[in-house]
Design goal:
The chain contains 12 helices and 11 strands. It is of the alpha/beta class.
Length: 314
């Protein structure tokens, strides 16, 4: 009888022991299953996010490809020719539906064309004067004597800064080394200078430089010591072809033409050279025009401007 009780107690103890082991085993097994489930869920979520991002990129690319074609007409100062042509190539990847058509000339000529009814979406001037003449927010004292209204208010920005450079032909035959040398040579009558017309910003900056040195432009021109160009590219060509001893152009044009710059004007001599830009209120594509103007203010376009000597201001 005692032996039977002992055997019964041993059996009960073994059953209890096995039950405890089973409980422990049961506790750990679900934990492993939960961890695996969490990992699988995380993986699935990551895959879903990746698929969503890919779908978004694909939709954006498709939207660009299927967007309605837009032609933007940009009137820009002649000194921007090379840089804007380069930027246009980059912009094809940004907005493949947009075709950029550029009209390069002196800012004064461009202003007149806009005033006379030419189609234009964006105007970029080489000086504030021509932009002010089209900006209704400027009164007569601010430069808008005719009360013209072509600038889309809120879109105008000071886009770039440039330098007014004294450039010489290859080899610098006249040995000109500075604006001081130019002034002395003009006073002595032994230098031929090329400059822009009075309605061209670079010509207006040059007039200020001549006044700074107390030189009479009319007398010098009548004496045959000054020749003119209708825009900065014409002045640059005269210097490059060595038909003059020197020319006053923009530093960016000298860079693009490979000309030697012997001096640059200070702000005391001719003021700061600001290039304002604006969408015009006559534009039929104001949203696309603003998008391109925003791109011109961005890092990618700024790098291209800086490479030729412009200083981005926006």
């Amino acid at each position: 009888m005692k032996k039977s009780l002992a055997l019964l107690l041993i059996a009960l103890m073994m059953v209890a022991l096995l039950a405890g082991c089973g409980a422990e085993s049961g506790t750990s097994e679900p934990a492993g299953e939960d961890a695996a489930a969490d990992t699988a869920a995380d993986t699935a979520e990551a895959e879903e996010n990746a698929d969503a991002a890919e779908a978004e990129d694909s939709a954006e690319a498709e939207a660009q490809e299927t967007a309605e074609p837009v032609e933007l007409i940009v009137f820009a100062a002649a000194s921007m020719t090379e840089t804007l042509d380069q930027i246009a190539e980059v912009y094809k990847d940004v907005a493949p539906n947009v075709t950029l058509v550029f009209n390069y000339d002196s800012s004064g000529t461009l202003k007149t064309q806009i005033q006379e009814g030419a189609d234009c979406d964006i105007f970029i001037s080489a000086a504030p004067k021509q932009m002010n003449q089209l900006d209704a927010s400027k009164d007569a004292e601010g430069g808008n004597e005719e009360g013209l209204d072509f600038v889309l208010q809120g879109s105008r920005v000071d886009l770039l800064d440039n330098k007014v450079a004294l450039a010489v032909p290859e080899g610098n035959p006249a040995g000109i080394g500075s604006y001081d040398d130019l002034a002395a040579g003009l006073k002595d009558g032994n230098i031929m200078l090329a400059m822009g017309n009075s309605d061209v910003p670079v010509g207006q900056y040059t007039q200020k430089i001549l006044a700074y040195y107390e030189l009479n432009e009319e007398d010098l021109a009548n004496a045959g010591h000054i020749t003119y160009g209708s825009n900065v590219k014409e002045v640059t060509t005269q210097v490059a072809e060595a038909t003059v001893d020197c020319g006053i152009i923009y530093a960016t044009d000298a860079f693009s033409a490979g000309l030697e710059v012997v001096d640059t004007a200070t702000s005391d001599m001719c003021g700061q050279v600001i290039y304002p830009a604006a969408v015009l209120n006559i534009s039929a594509n104001q949203e696309a025009a603003q998008a391109f103007l925003d791109f011109l203010k961005g890092d990618e376009a700024s790098a291209i401007f800086e490479a030729v000597g412009f200083t981005p201001l926006s």
